[in-house]
């Protein structure tokens, strides 16, 4: 059975309404509970700043709210839509296959005022995708919202071109201002929301949710087929008066355009068959404390099982014994210094290993003086192009030689080969450039 690792994931969405955010995002992004992975999606994120852009200002505000110890995995923008994905520093080496994409669905599917930003990645051997979108507005535009959804699904380029984005990852998180509305008269919705929060109140709220366009379109197989959503226990997230509350402490709904209050901002997810048991939603809520926008921010948290690579996880000593080694080398330039190193590349070690350096003579030695016996250790860790050598005397890996680093070419894993280097004594060799081949005409001395 493959081994698993549980990761906590925070997914949030907020339509800023083109207004500057508050000085602190902590009511929305918790400062006490920390998560392994954050995916923050916003819409209409364009506001005045001093000395920087609204994009940079927003990304800095999110990083400050998340706190130290996190690394940016991806940051992507489409006009005023943005997404930032952060991961704990200790998990960063587990992140691979990072891809970003944007899908505009505005006028002629070119303008990016509507559309989606996409980030996909792999955590160990589990593939995740995050989509933040802004779909068509207004009550009567439900068919256009469904069309925007289909455009994003068909055009998002993440993992495999032969599969759409909903079938290319173990878990897909879709959040944003989906703009699906409640098909009920505004006065009736307001009357329900003004009731005291008792059992009868939540029964009436469930009645409103039954008139929500999103689950109805899902049931009709028009959009978001196969997606799941947690139970909504918070008030509608749109459309509010900015920075205003009533005598009960609730945000007041705006009468400026007579919009029907609705749960426009949502977080949904979809898992591939067989992966449904690998994800659990632990929270789903809105944050009415932040009132700078006519939307309230929404967040959801999850526990996700990540499959670890199919490698042994306990160190396993391995001995490689060499009985006879032969090789042929071309004649080197006179005075050149030759160093021969036998390198081992195999999947069971985290980095290439060598037996040491022997000048002129091909006589392999180890630091422990064990002749041609070499001790390797199977280890699970970050892959690196830095060549390291197992030091039996130190009980750890050490650098193979000075200068071996990221500038050295990586040789394919799973092969053993001879590596030869010739260095000119006294000076560094430089390639000769023929000016004639570069199209440069030689000029005579200045008169």
Query: Number of helical runs?
Result: 5
List the uncertain runs: 357-392, 394-430, 433-447
Question: What is the mean predicted local confidence, pLDDT?
Answer: 80
Strand arrangement within the widest β-sheet reads 3-4-2-1-13-12
Distance between the termini: 82 Å
As for the number of domains, it is: 2
CATH topology of the largest domain, which one?
Answer: Deoxyribonuclease I, Chain A
What is the number of beta strands? Answer: 21
By CATH, the superfamily of the largest domain comes out as: Endonuclease/exonuclease/phosphatase
Global outline: globular
**Can you tell me the CATH class of the largest domain?**
Alpha Beta
Helicity range of the residues?
A: 10-25%
Radius of gyration: 30 Å
Report on the biggest sheet.
6 strands, mixed
The run of helices and strands is EEHEEEEEHEHHHEEEEEEEEEEEEE
Short description:
The protein is mainly β and 447 residues long.
Descriptors for this entry?
447 residues; mainly beta; Deoxyribonuclease I, Chain A; 2 domains; 6-stranded mixed β-sheet; disordered C terminus
């Amino acid at each position: 059975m493959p081994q698993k690792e549980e990761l906590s994931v925070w997914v949030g969405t907020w339509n800023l309404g083109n207004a500057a955010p508050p000085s602190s995002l902590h009511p929305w992004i918790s400062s006490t509970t920390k998560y392994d992975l954050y995916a923050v999606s916003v819409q209409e994120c364009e506001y005045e700043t001093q000395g920087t852009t609204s994009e940079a200002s927003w990304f800095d505000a999110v990083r400050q709210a998340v706190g130290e110890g996190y690394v940016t995995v991806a940051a992507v923008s489409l006009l005023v839509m943005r997404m930032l994905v952060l991961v704990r520093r200790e998990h960063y080496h587990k992140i691979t296959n990072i891809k970003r994409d944007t899908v505009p669905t505005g006028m002629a599917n070119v303008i990016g005022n509507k559309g989606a930003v996409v980030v996909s990645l792999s955590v160990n051997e589990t593939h995740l995708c995050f989509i933040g979108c802004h779909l068509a507005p207004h009550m009567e535009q439900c068919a256009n919202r469904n069309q925007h959804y289909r455009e994003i699904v068909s055009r998002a380029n993440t993992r495999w071109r032969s599969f759409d984005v909903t079938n290319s990852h173990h878990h897909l998180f879709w959040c944003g201002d989906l703009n699906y509305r409640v098909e009920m008269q505004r006065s009736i919705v307001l009357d329900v929301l003004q009731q005291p929060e008792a059992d009868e109140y939540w029964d009436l709220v469930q009645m409103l949710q039954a008139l929500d366009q999103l689950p109805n379109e899902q049931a009709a197989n028009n959009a978001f087929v196969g997606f799941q959503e947690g139970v909504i226990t918070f008030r509608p997230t749109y459309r509010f008066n900015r920075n205003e509350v009533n005598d009960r402490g609730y945000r007041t709904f705006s009468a400026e355009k007579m919009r029907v209050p609705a749960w426009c901002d949502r977080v949904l997810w979809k898992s591939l068959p067989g992966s449904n048991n690998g994800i659990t939603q632990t929270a789903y809520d809105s944050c009415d404390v932040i009132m700078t926008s006519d939307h309230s921010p929404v967040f959801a948290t999850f526990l996700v099982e990540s499959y670890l690579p199919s490698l042994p996880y306990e160190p396993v000593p391995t001995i490689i014994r060499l009985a006879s080694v032969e090789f042929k080398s071309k004649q080197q330039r006179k005075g050149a210094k030759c160093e021969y190193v036998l390198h081992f590349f195999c999947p069971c070690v985290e980095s290439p290993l060598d037996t040491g350096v022997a000048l002129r003579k091909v006589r392999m030695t180890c630091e422990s003086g064990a002749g041609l016996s070499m001790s390797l250790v199977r280890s699970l860790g970050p892959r690196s192009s830095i060549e390291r050598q197992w030091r039996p005397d130190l009980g750890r890996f050490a650098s193979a030689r000075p200068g071996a680093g990221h500038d050295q070419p990586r040789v394919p894993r799973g092969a053993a080969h001879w590596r030869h280097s010739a260095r000119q004594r006294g000076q560094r060799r430089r390639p000769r450039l023929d000016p004639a081949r570069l199209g440069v005409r030689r000029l005579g001395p200045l008169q």
